[in-house]
């Protein structure tokens, strides 16, 4: 894409995820001068970011507000934290999620905890944007979904959008939220399209979204697998199977109420995510459901996730690693069997 | 500030007064810890009082401080009031952080104490961001980040110095080299003779100074503050000092050779600076004694406040996890 939305462009019917991210950043900077950005290669002189999400922003808002940094992830996140303590709303780009292992100390020990440890005297309104996802052949160190690590730390908010319009509204939600937010962008679906969001419309964090109503089984998760679930729900409707899809949008803090309300209605749940199955967020979602709704469940809560191995390079192996839409479908059918067996 | 400002007796006295307040509080805290009347993790600043005071006299309340778990001298030099500070050590609801942070995470934005970290080297990138905000807002503030010699071997030190130099940020990196990183001798862990040399790698102004020499420290600090305020970029100051009370309270310091310890004790900056104040004519013995009595009374009053204050309500555990909108 070229420069972010301008008056001279005809309003498109749909936009891609990349356009949605870009537009949210543009509109946030236009709305509030305290919104600033930093990250590797993000200014236009360096190409406007390796994924072009920030293209045009430094030209429009200046290189003081849109700053290309050295390859220094600790300094990037630390500088965002420091600037936020002084009243700014920094958006830090960590190019890929596996690189976020480098500034873990800044995120876990500082961004997440300063509000609590200071007794509320300071807070850290930063957004860390990062990109990841398997399926693009990027191998073991450029594909991981590590959201569970951050969901496990009190004080952090973790957001994963499943449509371009959600991506826009949720990214604005992160930027104008007063807590540190981790916003995860999927590299595989970046060119996929969806309806255009309303300019300036913020989607509040901490609220799940019933993306499709149904009565037989609840599919709950976030991010890319929600897109698969929506397609499946259409397909299964043709067979008379009514699937409700709950998109968490904000992984943590999790909107447990919306999930429980849905599962209380359907009596069945399939929990989905791209990250490996073991110790993933799906385990937490399943646990909350069974703790509250054990008596009402008509079938065990099932999980569909990726395999517990390093993301492989070969397409053949990578496909074997990744969760599959067919796996979600199979899990839905299993919950609908009278007696669910392993 | 002129190129070579004169170090007046009044300045020396101001440094002494701040250093002596730090010193008296440290002595008091160690006594309370020994007697069991205070139960808290404690990292004594004994030996590092002068350098903090000589830095502090150059700063305004609106300037920012980022310090570490061994930071009580830095916080006091920045002007933090005693009552909320002591109440935080006592884990009370009236503490600066409502008893939720503790001694290792003292925060007091009113006096510019923005972050106290328990993670070696972590404060430097955060200070870089505070400096970046000041540069953007053109608010004229200076950010001081203090850390030990051990922090200069951590990756965050290098990332922050490079970024601060590149962006010409108004940040002062004050390395308090007390010659030991926890139990390890400086020379065993650090590849350069002086940490101040490391500034050259980033084309940053850098200086190594005797942190226990009030005038030398005051001059180095003044130059760094003037440079930052003028928009001419950051400075790395290595203030060489010594840590008399071990890494943590209760550390017997068996790794420090007796002769080395005694040689440092003979050069203890506190008695030396007191003698210098008297020699300068800035104050008489009686006036210094009166100051001690005045500070001691303030300490007792603040300790009483801390002791009398309630512990936090248990409901406090659910507050400040997220902001109100969560």
Strand fraction band of chain B? Answer: 5-15%
The coarse silhouette of chain B is: globular
β-strand amount of chain A: 15-25%
CATH class of the largest domain in chain A: Alpha Beta
> What structural class do you assign from the helix and strand content of chain B?
alpha/beta
Please name the fourth-level CATH homologous superfamily of the largest domain in chain A.
Thiamin diphosphate (ThDP)-binding fold, Pyr/PP domains
CATH architecture tag of the largest domain in chain A: 3-Layer(aba) Sandwich
Low-confidence parts of chain A lasting 5 or more residues at pLDDT below 50? none
Mean pLDDT of chain A: 95
How do the SSEs of chain B run, as a string of H and E?
Answer: HHEHHEHEHEEEHEHEHHH
Distance between the termini of chain A: 48 Å
Strands of chain A, total number = 14
Structural category of chain A is alpha/beta
Q: What is the C-alpha radius of gyration of chain A, as a whole number of Å?
A: 20 Å
* Number of H/I helices of chain B: 11
Query: CATH fold name of chain B, please?
Result: Rossmann fold
CATH class of chain B: Alpha Beta
Whole-angstrom Rg of chain B: 19 Å
The figure for the number of domains of chain B is 1
Task: Tell me what the structure shows.
The complex is a heterodimer of chains A (342) and B (326). By secondary structure, chain A is of the alpha/beta class. Chain A has two domains: 182 residues, Rossmann fold, CATH 3.40.50; 133 residues, Rossmann fold (3-Layer(aba) Sandwich), CATH 3.40.50.920. Chain A is 35% helix and 20% strand. Chain A has twelve helices and 14 strands. In chain A, the strands form three sheets. Chain A has a seven-stranded mixed β-sheet, with helices on both faces. In chain A, strand 13, helix 10 and strand 14 form a beta-alpha-beta unit. In chain A, helix 9 packs across helix 10. The longest helix of chain A has 15 residues. Chain B is of the alpha/beta class and 326 residues long. Chain B has one domain: Thiamin diphosphate (ThDP)-binding fold, Pyr/PP domains (Rossmann fold). In chain B, the strands form two sheets. In chain B, strands 2-1-3-4-8-7 form a six-stranded parallel β-sheet, with helices on both faces. In chain B, strand 7, helix 8 and strand 8 form a beta-alpha-beta unit. In chain B, helix 1 crosses helix 2, helix 1 packs across helix 3 and helix 1 crosses helix 11. Chain B is globular. Chain B starts with 8 loop residues before the first helix and ends in an 18-residue tail after the last helix. The model of chain B has no long low-confidence stretch (mean pLDDT 96). The chains are: A alpha/beta (342), B alpha/beta (326). Chains A and B meet through helix 3, helix 4 and helix 5 of A and strand 2, helix 5 and helix 6 of B.
């Amino acid at each position: 894409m070229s420069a972010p939305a301008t008056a001279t462009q005809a309003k498109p019917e749909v936009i891609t995820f990349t356009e949605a991210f870009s537009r949210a950043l543009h509109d946030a900077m236009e709305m509030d001068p305290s919104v600033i950005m930093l990250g590797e290669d993000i200014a236009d002189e360096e190409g406007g970011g390796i994924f072009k999400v920030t293209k045009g922003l430094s030209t429009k808002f200046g290189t003081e507000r849109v700053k290309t940094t050295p390859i220094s992830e600790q300094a990037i996140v630390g500088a965002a934290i420091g600037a936020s303590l002084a009243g700014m709303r920094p958006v830090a780009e960590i190019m890929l999620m596996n690189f976020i292992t480098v500034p873990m100390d800044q995120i876990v020990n500082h961004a997440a905890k300063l509000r609590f440890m200071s007794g509320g005297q300071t807070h850290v309104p930063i957004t860390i944007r990062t990109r990841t996802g398997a399926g693009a052949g990027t191998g073991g160190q450029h594909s991981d979904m590590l959201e569970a690590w951050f969901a496990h730390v009190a004080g952090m908010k973790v957001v994963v959008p499943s449509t371009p319009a959600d991506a826009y509204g949720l990214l604005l939600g992160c930027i104008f939220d007063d807590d540190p937010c981790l916003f995860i962008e999927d590299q595989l679906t970046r060119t996929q399209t969806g309806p255009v969001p309303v300019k300036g419309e913020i989607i509040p964090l901490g609220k799940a979204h019933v993306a499709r109503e149904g009565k037989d089984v609840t599919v709950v998760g976030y991010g890319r697998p929600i897109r698969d679930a929506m397609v499946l729900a259409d397909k299964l409707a043709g067979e008379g199977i009514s699937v409700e899809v709950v998109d968490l949008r904000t992984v943590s803090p999790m909107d447990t109420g919306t999930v429980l309300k849905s599962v209380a209605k359907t009596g069945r749940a399939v929990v989905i995510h791209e990250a490996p199955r073991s110790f993933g967020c799906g385990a937490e979602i399943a646990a909350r459901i069974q703790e509250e709704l054990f008596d009402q469940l008509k079938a065990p809560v099932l999980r569909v996730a990726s395999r517990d191995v390093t993301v492989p390079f070969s397409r053949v192996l990578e496909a074997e690693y990744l969760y599959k839409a067919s796996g979600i479908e199979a899990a839905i059918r299993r919950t609908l069997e009278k007696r669910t067996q392993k | 500030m002129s190129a070579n400002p004169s170090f007046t007796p009044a300045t020396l006295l101001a440094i002494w007064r701040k250093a002596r307040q730090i010193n008296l509080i440290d002595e008091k805290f160690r006594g309370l810890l020994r007697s069991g009347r205070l139960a808290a993790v404690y990292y004594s600043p004994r030996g590092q009082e002068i350098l903090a005071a000589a830095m502090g006299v150059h700063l305004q309340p609106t300037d920012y401080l980022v310090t570490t778990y061994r930071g009580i001298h830095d916080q006091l030099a920045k002007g933090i009031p005693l009552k909320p500070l002591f109440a935080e050590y006592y884990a009370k609801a009236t503490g600066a952080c409502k008893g939720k942070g503790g001694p290792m995470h003292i925060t007091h934005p009113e006096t510019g104490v923005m972050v106290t970290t328990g993670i070696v080297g972590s404060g430097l990138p955060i200070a870089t961001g505070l400096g970046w905000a000041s540069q953007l807002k053109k608010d004229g503030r200076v950010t001081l980040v203090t850390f030990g010699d051990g922090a200069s071997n951590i990756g965050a030190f290098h990332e922050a110095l490079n970024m601060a130099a590149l962006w010409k940020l108004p940040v002062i990196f004050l390395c308090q080299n007390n010659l030991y990183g926890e139990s390890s001798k400086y020379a065993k862990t650090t590849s350069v003779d002086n940490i101040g040399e490391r500034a050259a790698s980033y084309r940053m102004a850098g200086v190594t100074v005797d942190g226990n020499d009030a005038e030398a420290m005051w001059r180095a600090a003044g130059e760094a503050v003037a440079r930052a305020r003028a928009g001419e970029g950051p400075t790395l100051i290595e203030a060489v000092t010594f840590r008399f009370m071990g890494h943590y309270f209760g550390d017997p310091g068996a790794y420090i050779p007796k002769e080395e310890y005694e040689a440092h004790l003979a050069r203890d900056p506190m008695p030396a600076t007191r003698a210098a104040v008297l020699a300068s004519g800035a104050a008489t013995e009686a006036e210094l004694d009166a100051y001690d009595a005045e500070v001691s009374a303030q300490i007792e009053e603040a300790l009483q406040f801390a002791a009398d204050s309630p512990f936090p309500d248990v409901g406090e555990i659910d507050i400040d996890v997220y902001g109100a909108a969560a």
